[in-house]
Design goal:
five-stranded mixed sheet, 20 strands, alpha+beta, five-stranded antiparallel sheet, about 550 residues
């Protein structure tokens, strides 16, 4: 409780002042602090919106969130990436970007609060974040140079200026009509320019939202030419068509993976936060390097004029855990990669060739290293232009991607490919090799139970157990199933399409009530039995037997 003078009776008198009348001053202080934090958040929003608008005029990959996210992916340990893919699947990129935005929001709030005491320092903090985005953009493998720095720079300047202005409204006294401060007797915390702040904050929010919407619209329109080029592609009939899928290759068992994976369901695992939209009419591929006597530069039209092959090939991601979803089978159309290398004068190491590694480069800067021997040993390695009867979807590498049957994707399946360099493994480590993955990675013999699902509760009686098995380039010879600790029992295999595709299998299980563990293993055509040794995906793919636990009712 405090006191104040009361001269009403001609003499001073002390009147108590209750604590309740002192609270508004503290309340105003907290309100101003909250508005300072809000100013920081608005400044961060403005910075990102302006950066997106500028990036739309340059290229979407130059935006600060994408650049910083890409830098984070590049510096994340392999085990952490593997954990993210395992737990978030194809949403891992969305989670990463959401995390970046959440961190930026927290720092923006803190900078806004800081600016109330140190106005210039708070604004400078926004510029620091712009510098981080700039450095990330300039150091990306696919950086286009200084222009990639502009979105982060311009956005940071806009955000810093806005924070400086908004905090200025919180620190300034509102003027009276005669130009003097309206409340000269009130402390600074009570006399800030409320109206000016509200007007400035509202205008900033509206302008930022508009810039963000416009940037997104322009970014979308920038990909329209690429989309138009894809719509204009008419795939020629292949010179070497794939044989019809045998009638017995597709099991009629509910829950088993379809033999041909639809494009919309085909797995996608890559590091691209923004899917590249490449105009097929402007696309070029260069083949050069060690042992290349006749370098080639090819357009998309050049590829379509060449001899095209059509093959059913199962792709597998090295990040696929035992029983995981990152495997799919599709019908691909493309040009034999071995023919292009031979035309360039390349010979495999087994015949005296100087290069033992083919480094494929993507438009997003990704590099994959593939053994030259594997590409030229007679398997159907190709530069694919079509997938399941249509041009490649953008998510899967349009206009051209590389495929090498029998190798995990990280050493063979370069999407959005633009460059092929012949070199040696001693001379160059590709992207994933630098991050502790193996240089060479043949796909391991694996099998999976698709149905019943883990923790299913089927009824007692005959339960169809079914799934898929794969051992690309070797083929599947046998699949066996075990119930609990019982003996291995051979399943019924569907007809084989080719040794490069997975094979469906089924088993009519006479299920008895209670809890049971179902385990599967495969044997390939070389006689190699799928190992029970459980390993993680790093460094060259997971191994072990897939099991599911069910309760029979």
């Amino acid at each position: 409780m405090g006191f104040r003078a009361n001269p009403a009776a001609g003499q001073p008198r002390i009147t108590p002042v209750s604590d309740e009348k002192k609270k508004p001053r503290n309340t105003v202080g907290w309100l101003r602090l909250a508005l300072g934090a809000l100013s920081g958040l608005l400044a961060g929003f403005a910075a990102l919106a302006v950066a997106q608008l500028v990036a739309a005029g340059i290229r979407p990959q130059a935006g600060p969130v994408v650049a910083v996210g890409g830098a984070a992916i590049d510096r994340t340990p392999a085990a952490v990436k593997d954990w993210a893919i395992r737990n978030f699947g194809t949403n891992d990129k969305l989670i990463l970007q959401a995390g970046i935005l959440a961190v930026l929001a927290v720092f923006a709030l803190a900078l806004g609060a800081l600016a109330l005491r140190h106005r210039r320092l708070g604004a400078a903090g926004v510029l620091v974040f712009g510098a981080v985005g700039t450095a990330a953009a300039l150091n990306r493998p696919d950086s286009a140079g200084f222009t990639d720095a502009l979105p982060s720079l311009v956005g940071a300047v806009a955000g810093a200026a806005l924070l400086y202005v908004l905090v200025g409204r919180l620190l300034a006294s509102r003027p009276a009509p005669d130009g003097s401060p309206e409340h000269p007797d009130k402390p600074e915390s009570e006399g800030w320019d409320r109206r000016g702040f509200v007007i400035a904050a509202t205008a900033a929010a509206a302008a930022s939202a508009g810039a963000g919407v416009l940037g997104r619209a322009l970014g979308t329109s920038s990909g329209r030419q690429a989309a138009a080029s894809r719509e204009g592609v008419v795939l020629p009939a292949p010179d070497s068509p794939a044989a019809a899928v045998p009638k017995g290759a597709r099991l009629r068992v509910a829950g088993v993976s379809p033999f041909i994976t639809p494009n919309r369901d085909f797995y996608r695992v890559d590091t691209a936060l923004v899917v590249p939209k490449v105009d097929a009419t402007a696309w070029r591929l260069r083949i050069h390097g060690t042992g290349v006597r006749r370098p080639l530069t090819l357009s998309f039209a050049d590829l379509l004029k060449r001899e095209l092959i059509e093959r059913d090939i199962t792709l597998t991601c090295v990040s696929n855990e035992v029983g995981g979803p990152y495997v799919g089978n599709a019908r691909w159309i493309g040009v034999r990669l071995a023919d292009l290398l031979a035309e360039s004068g390349v010979t495999p190491p087994s015949k005296g060739g100087r290069a033992d590694q083919l480094v494929a480069r993507s438009v997003d800067g990704m590099t994959l290293g593939t053994p030259v021997e594997d590409v030229m040993d007679g398997r159907d390695a190709m530069l694919a232009v079509g997938m399941n009867g249509e041009p490649l979807p953008f998510d899967h590498g349009f206009p051209v991607r590389m495929l090498v049957p029998g190798l995990y994707g990280y050493v063979s399946a370069c999407k959005w490919i633009k460059d092929i360099e012949l070199t040696t493994f001693d001379a160059y480590d590709a992207y994933w090799v630098k991050r502790d993955w193996a240089r060479e990675a043949p796909i391991k013999t694996q099998s999976r139970i698709d149905t019943p699902k883990p923790f299913a509760r089927p009824k007692a009686g005959t339960v169809m157990v079914a799934g898929v098995a794969w051992a690309q380039t070797r083929g599947i010879d046998k699949v066996e199933i075990r119930v609990d600790d019982g003996p291995w029992q051979e399943t019924t295999l569907a007809a084989e399409d080719t040794q490069d595709t997975w094979r469906q299998w089924s088993f009519p299980w006479r299920a008895t009530k209670g809890g049971h563990t179902l385990t599967v293993r495969a044997t390939d055509r070389t006689g190699q039995v799928q190992t029970d040794k459980r390993t993680r995906t790093v460094p060259d793919g997971a191994s072990g037997w897939h099991s599911v636990v069910v309760t029979v009712e």
